[in-house]
Amino acid sequence: MEAAIDLFALTFSATLALFFVLWLASLALRDASIVDIFWGVGFVVIAAVAAVASEGALARRLLVLALVAAWGLRLSHHLYRRNWGHGEDFRYQKMRRAHGERFWLVSLGTVFGLQALLQWIVSLPVQLAMLSPEPAALSRLDLFGVVVFAIGFAFEAVGDRQLTRFRADPANRGRVLDTGLWAWTRHPNYFGDAVVWWGIFLVAAATPFGWLSVIGPVLMTFLLMRVSGVALLERTLVRTKPQYADYVARTSAFFPRPPRRRAELPPSGSEPEKTSLEREGDPGSAIKRPRGGSR
To answer: 63 FRET partner, CA 20 to 30 A, in 77, 139, 173, 269?
Structure first.
């Protein structure tokens, strides 16, 4: 128990320090969007600190560090290439207008502090996986977790790549991407993100107390589905892209499934499927994936 408390205190301190530095950088740049770019890097920092400071099984520490580094660095690199130099994200611009001269202080808690806390909670599977020395060898559950991680990683990376190529073609301006993985789910990158963290959780669950970290993937999935991912994005898409309502009727919101054929769609004049945001209202979140991250 003492070892766990020490590790948690160390990783939490490292997380707070990173986000405090990012907050200072955002003041100099007058751009809070920097927090989104470093979201993935933050998990890598936590994993690196835990790998060095804990005394868990070496094979599992190295495995989890490799998984988190692959996911986190790819995500941050993707967001950097997409967002850097394009100005502050609209969410933070809206908050800046609402709080005026006080935004510099408000952002410390509502943007950087909040994301630091959420990141640390989501990372609990990483920390608990590295904490226990038993079992010393990797088990079948560890390997199954790696397979699940790989599926999620592929969904997220391929989905991001398909969207990047689609948006790079001027002929697609105003159109809806509905091919590739985007024909099976409206948000393949968000789905992949969630699956990645369930895979890491399975690796943690191979250790005696790793199952306690289930709050990590549950929180990440909830954020992606109901707060900062699907819900936050689809209000804008429904309003700005006339074709999106038809896409909603044909395509699963989150979990992949074969697209519905025209004959399977509701008859003309019936009410189309509502997005999660239309059902529940705009949560106004400033968490994670910036600038329409799924489209």
So the answer is: 77
Model confidence at 266, pLDDT cuts 50, 70, 90, reads: low
277 CB-near residues (< 8 Å, 6+ apart): 230, 231, 232, 234, 235, 283
- H or E stretch including 15? helix 2-29
Alpha-carbon torsion 243, 86, 83, 287, what sign? Answer: negative
Task: Please name the helix (run of DSSP H) or strand (run of DSSP E) that holds residue 235, with its range, or none.
Answer: helix 230-240
Cβ(195)–Cβ(221) below 8 Å? no
- What is the distance between the alpha carbons of residues 179 and 184, in angstroms, rounded to a whole number? 8
- Enter the DSSP assignment of 213: G
> CA–CA separation, 120 vs 174, rounded Å?
37
Cα 72 to the center of its chain, rounded Å: 10
Please list the alpha-helical segments (H only) found in the chain.
2-29, 34-37, 39-53, 58-83, 90-99, 103-107, 114-122, 124-131, 140-168, 188-205, 215-222, 230-240, 244-250, 276-280
CA distance 35 to 119: 12
Q: Which of 25, 43, 9, 42 is nearest to 108 (CA)?
A: 25
Query: Which amino acid, residue 119?
Result: Q
pLDDT tier, 276 (very low <50, low <70, confident <90, very high otherwise): very low
